[in-house]
Amino acid sequence: MKDERRAEMHRAWNKACFPAVPTGEIDSHKIFMLEEEGPRYVNSLASFSLNRIGHWLKRADDVQWEGDDRFSTSWSDDAKKGKKTCILSDSALEKSWSVSWFREREEDMIEIAEIALDGTLEVLASGEIDDGLRVERLKKHNFYTTPSGPGAVMGRFHNEAYVPLFILTTALSTSMPDDFRKHTHDTVTGEVVWFLEQQDKLLAYDGGLPGALSASYVQAVLDDVTAPVANWVGDTAAEFAQAMTEAGAVWGSAAMVYHDGDITSCVIPTPDGSPAFYHGNRAKWTGEVGLVAWFENYGKKNAKLCVEMLMDDKNPEDVVNAMLSGTGSPSLVFDFKNQRTVSGQSSATTKEFFFFDFACDVESAIEYGKLREDCRLWPTATSRSAPKVGPGV
């Protein structure tokens, strides 16, 4: 029985699709492509999870699931916002989730969030629900997709939160009949249906809904698209740090400023001489205004790349000082030995910004940047709108 189960796992893994990873020199264009590629392969599992959970809790005839011996439900309607919410609580795991339906930008939406002990919500996944008119709406914006049935979902993970989402799917699957959790037809929209078809044996191995094997698959896909970029950063870092030092772009003294004065880049001297970098961007509008990147055990087999995102309520100097003292709090850690990301808080967002920003620094900071000595270089909550200084800067 154990050998049969192992063979089933191998068949499932071999059928699943994996992205093609570019080889050779990495540049900002390839990084952009890889950032798109990873989620494109795995969001089908988020879409399927959203569809099955949504349909189980709120049926097509609008009948609401009232729970069972393991799960309890609490339903609420916010008529003003047009939002229906189910609070789902698991007595076995002592966890709770919020599942919400609402309308946003002409689309019916579903969102799943985990409820922390303090009552805050961490969104795990969300997506658009096809109401049968989605394809026609997309055509108005010159976007074409394969038609799908009403109720199909085009979803996405939030911040790569596939593990906590699959904890929910695994737990809730015990309450669902076999044919319901294994039903895949018209559950996802045309953009991701092909990917779900390649993942059907993963789902079968997990019992119908995504579980442990599906989580391993998502991790493998995301590592596949992250590793080549992280390795390139590791190979490039020392040479780039030396070039920035020779140009005079050193933390506390001066920095290279480019892209109409929005981007600030410099190297950070470290006690052991390992490369470390600061990147600031006044143009970011989502609250992320910069990054600090450094290495642990640089040049050794157990080396790690560490990156901490700077939000507009963080003082860059405090983050740099914490990094130099060994007390930094990286939101992303990449383990070079195991070639995988050790997820931290906001790791997906950090990856999205850092790899592209680092490539832009390598390509543009020295060639197009201007060296500037100015205390207003370091963007904080109060200095983001500081006036630009100098011609062309």
Q: What this model shows, in words?
A:
By secondary structure, this protein is an alpha+beta fold. The protein folds into 2 domains: 199 residues, no CATH class; 154 residues, no CATH class. Helix content is 37%, strand content 23%. The protein has 10 helices and 14 strands. Strands 13-12-11-10-9-8-7-14 form an 8-stranded antiparallel β-sheet, with helices on both faces. Strands 1-2-3-4-5-6 form a 6-stranded antiparallel β-sheet, with helices on one face. Helix 1 runs antiparallel to helix 7, helix 2 runs antiparallel to helix 8 and helix 2 runs antiparallel to helix 10. The longest helix has 36 residues. The protein is elongated, with a radius of gyration of 23 Å.
- Structural category is alpha+beta
Mean pLDDT: 87
The profile of the biggest β sheet is: 8 strands, antiparallel
Low-pLDDT regions: 379-393
Shape: elongated
Instruction: Give the neighbour order of strands across the main sheet.
Output: 13-12-11-10-9-8-7-14
Structural domain count? 2
Helix fraction? 25-40%
User: Nearest-angstrom radius of gyration?
Assistant: 23 Å
Number of extended strands = 14
Number of helices: 10
Order of helices and strands: HHEEEEEHEHHHHHEEEEEHEEHE
* Portion in strands: 15-25%
Give the distance, in angstroms, between the N- and C-terminal Cα atoms.
68 Å
